[in-house]
């Protein structure tokens, strides 16, 4: 016991080694080759997820998860209380802000295809383990709250259609619960519990069944939207937009409404969780994300136009605006048609929240960051059935006990944080050198490369080289030495012929660095926006680039430039957080035109612009992907600014609950995940293997007869206490002494054996000599 307590003495703890070990653990990345080769798709139980989803299925999932609440609730709420008919402009602004995060998600989906876990897996491959766990933990919060809120909203919809008889029966028969939510009395919502259980069963039955159910509901929702468009044309009146009524609250109301409308576009990240179940995720994910956002924008703008032209903005019903706008014109039958669409939209939104949650839990449990039994995949349904059951149980419990208003307030903070971190990751990775992007470029670690020397390296070079210089890469080459790093395309290969697009796929080691269609390096192909800019500016384009210090086409990122971008991005994140906080909480001083407030805002805007310009001066990585976020670094930077602003607009109680959730997640990670991670177990096994190898594979063994002895304490202090030069001289003396002792011992042994043999020969001659 005393020895254990002595080991805890701070003076005996090696703080440098402990910090390095912790730092290396929380920043370790998951190698992408396991996912590219398909090994990452197999769980510990040997069952893969079914790859059955097409691009249309992914678009349907994305649209369904967004349109439900946005079209039937948000449009009327923003139009009446914030923007009036200007809600149309609010939706357009919110769509642009959402597309900024969407393109960052799409690029991450192309960088790491065939993955489950959305931003969690992307961050694990590219940034580090702790950041990935933090993002995954908050995505679970988003989907959990969204599922419970969807079930509660459906329960409220059925209750309103039944003239509130369900809620009255609950209060009379079951009673009320005091203290839930914000302290008001509320009844346990048994109908929401039943709805959550039914949807959980549908999701657990199989991805094709749940997506088929989702597609049917989307078709029904589409039919109701077409009905609203056609029927509403007979009741529109242009006077509701005339005489300054289009922007009754000015542009401030439009911007405030845009912040609320942004939440109507949240949900497209469900597409990024289906990479392992998509047939062709490399192209389906970016197309589905973009198409779903465009479809949602079209639906929201068209519905808002009909709504604000049928009813004055001040007379819109906030609870059910689309149903009541037909009632105001005496078209009562349309109310029930829209009610069917509302039920279908809320159901598909509920399904869109519950569908990705088990997949994120499955991905985290498969990596060992959560309990591994959650990664079990049913061989019958080919879905993570245990994660589905746990997700449905937690969502059902929340929908039963927590009110809908409190659930809605907690729904968006996890999503906005995930969007922000994805934008940060894209901004970082595009400016890092290839050797520093561990996840998807460095297929062989530097430590393993250093061990390959001499004859082994030559053997690998001969075994791995192609038969002919013009031979194209068509799959894993035969490698007798066991090397992982296959050769890249040489210059002669590029000159001889083009790459075959059918054989040059994501498994190729040069995927992304060479154009698939032309066979030339990625830096030779220019961005379409850059070409337009050249035509606009003319011959002064190159002069302007030189004067601004912008990198040329041939410049490549280095470790120094990558470090510069990392520092600038971190400072940019902190400065944006301070800027948005001051804009929100110091708005009174800014509107009052206080000189110090205006000066502070101008100073922060100037610093943000300088940081973005410094990032722009650094060379980008030439890696070419099928889909890349345009206009770097402006698109990710603006996405960061919008997401941080919307996060800070949330209430204080929401931040407190979010902090509690994050604290629980940190306890789980440092108490379980960091020690049971797949990477941690692999590192332990490798260390054990290396120690065993070093124990039994000794290059120069020695014997006790060589006169080897450990130095005494005084000798060790004397020999190790001098400067480096004395230590080097001492090592040389010791090595010379050992060499001399071994030479002398070998000579003595040789002479001794020679004397013994001569003595034996002499004895034999005496025995057999004739007398």
From TrEMBL:
Q: What is a GO molecular function of this protein?
A: gamma-aminobutyric acid transmembrane transporter activity
Instruction: Name the domain of life.
Output: Eukaryota
Please give the InterPro entries that the UniProt record associates with this protein: AA/rel_permease1, CAT_C
GO BP: any one term: gamma-aminobutyric acid import
Q: What is its main location?
A: membrane
What does the record say about its membrane topology? Multi-pass membrane protein
- Region of interest (Disordered), ranges: 735-771
Any one GO CC term of the record: nucleoplasm
Domain Cationic amino acid transporter C-terminal stretches: 627-677
Instruction: Please state where this protein is localized.
Output: Membrane
Ranges annotated as biased composition (Basic residues): 745-754
Q: Which Pfam families match?
A: AA_permease_2, AA_permease_C
Q: Which residues cross the membrane?
A: 58-79, 85-108, 120-140, 190-207, 219-242, 254-275, 287-316, 336-362, 383-404, 410-429, 564-587, 593-615, 627-648, 654-675
Keywords linked to the UniProt accession: Amino-acid transport, Membrane, Transmembrane, Transmembrane helix, Transport
Presence of keyword Transmembrane helix: yes
Check the record and name the PANTHER family matching this protein.
CATIONIC AMINO ACID TRANSPORTER-RELATED, INNER MEMBRANE TRANSPORTER YGJI-RELATED
* Protein name in UniProt: Solute carrier family 7 member 14
Gene (UniProt): SLC7A14
């Amino acid at each position: 016991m005393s020895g254990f307590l002595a080991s805890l003495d701070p003076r005996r703890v090696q703080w440098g080694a402990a910090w390095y070990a912790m730092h290396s653990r929380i920043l370790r990345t998951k190698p992408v080759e396991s996912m590219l080769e398909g090994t990452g798709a197999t769980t510990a139980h040997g069952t893969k997820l079914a790859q059955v989803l097409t691009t249309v299925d992914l678009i349907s999932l994305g649209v369904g998860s967004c349109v439900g609440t946005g079209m039937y609730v948000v449009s009327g709420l923003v139009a009446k209380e914030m923007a009036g008919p200007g809600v149309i402009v609010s939706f357009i602004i919110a769509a642009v802000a959402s597309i900024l995060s969407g393109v960052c998600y799409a690029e991450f989906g192309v960088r790491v295809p065939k993955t489950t876990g959305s931003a969690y897996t992307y961050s694990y491959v590219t940034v580090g383990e702790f950041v990935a766990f933090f993002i995954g933990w908050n995505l679970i919060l988003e989907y959990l709250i969204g599922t419970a809120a969807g079930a509660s909203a459906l329960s409220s919809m059925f209750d309103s259609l039944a003239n509130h008889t369900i809620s009255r029966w609950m209060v009379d028969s079951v009673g009320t619960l005091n203290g839930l939510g914000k302290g008001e009395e509320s009844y346990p919502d048994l109908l929401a519990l039943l709805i959550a259980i039914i949807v959980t069963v549908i999701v657990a039955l199989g991805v094709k069944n749940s997506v088929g159910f989702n597609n049917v509901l989307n078709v029904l929702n589409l039919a109701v939207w077409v009905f609203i468009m056609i029927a509403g044309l007979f009741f529109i009146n242009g006077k509701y937009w005339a005489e300054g009524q289009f922007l009754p609250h000015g542009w401030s109301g439009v911007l405030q409404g845009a912040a609320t409308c942004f939440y109507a576009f949240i949900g497209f990240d469900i597409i990024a969780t289906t990479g392992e179940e998509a047939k062709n995720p490399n192209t389906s994910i970016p197309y589905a994300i973009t198409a779903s956002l465009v479809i949602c924008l079209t639906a929201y703008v068209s519905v808002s136009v009909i709504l604000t032209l049928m009813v004055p903005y001040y007379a819109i019903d906030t609870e059910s605006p689309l149903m009541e706008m037909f009632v105001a014109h005496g078209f009562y039958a349309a109310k029930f048609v829209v009610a069917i669409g509302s039920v279908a939209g809320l159901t598909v939104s509920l399904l869109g929240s519950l569908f990705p949650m088990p997949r994120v839990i499955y991905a985290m449990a498969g990596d060992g960051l959560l309990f591994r039994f959650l990664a079990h995949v049913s061989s019958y349904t080919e879905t993570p059935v245990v994660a589905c059951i746990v997700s449905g149980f937690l969502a059902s419990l929340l929908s039963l006990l927590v009110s809908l208003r409190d659930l809605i307030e907690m729904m968006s903070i996890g999503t906005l944080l995930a969007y922000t971190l994805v934008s940060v990751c894209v901004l970082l990775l595009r400016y890092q050198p290839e050797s520093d992007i561990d996840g998807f470029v460095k297929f062989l670690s530097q430590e393993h490369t250093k061990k390959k020397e001499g004859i082994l390296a030559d053997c690998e070079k001969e075994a791995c080289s192609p038969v002919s210089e013009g031979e194209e890469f068509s799959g894993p080459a035969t490698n007798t030495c066991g090397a992982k790093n296959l050769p890249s395309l040489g210059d002669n290969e590029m000159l001889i012929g083009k790459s075959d697009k059918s054989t040059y796929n994501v498994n190729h080691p040069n995927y992304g660095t060479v154009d698939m269609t032309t066979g030339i390096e990625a830096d030779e192909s220019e961005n379409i926006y850059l070409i337009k800019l050249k035509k606009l500016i003319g011959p002064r384009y190159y002069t302007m680039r030189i004067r601004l210090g912008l990198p040329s086409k041939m410049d490549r990122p280095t470790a120094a430039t990558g470090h510069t971008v990392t520092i600038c991005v971190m400072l940019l994140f902190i400065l944006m957080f301070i800027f948005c906080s001051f804009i929100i909480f110091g708005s009174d001083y800014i509107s009052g035109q206080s000189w110090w407030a205006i000066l502070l805002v101008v100073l922060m805007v100037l610093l943000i612009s300088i940081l973005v310009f410094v990032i722009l001066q650094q060379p980008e990585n030439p890696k070419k992907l099928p889909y890349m976020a345009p206009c770097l670094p402006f698109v990710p930077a603006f996405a960061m600014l919008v997401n941080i602003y919307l996060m800070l607009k949330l209430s204080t109680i929401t931040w407190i609950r979010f902090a509690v959730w994050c604290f629980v997640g940190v306890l789980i990670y440092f108490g379980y995940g960091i020690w049971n991670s797949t990477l941690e177990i692999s590192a332990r096994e490798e260390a054990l293997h290396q120690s065993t190898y070093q124990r039994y594979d000794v290059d120069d063994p020695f014997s006790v007869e060589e006169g080897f002895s450990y130095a005494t304490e005084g000798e060790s202090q004397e020999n190790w206490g001098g400067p480096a030069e004395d230590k080097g001289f001492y090592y040389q003396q010791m090595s010379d002494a050992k060499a001399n002792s071994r030479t002398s011992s070998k000579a003595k042994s040789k002479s001794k054996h020679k004397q013994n043999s001569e003595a034996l020969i002499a004895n034999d001659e005496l025995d057999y000599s004739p007398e």
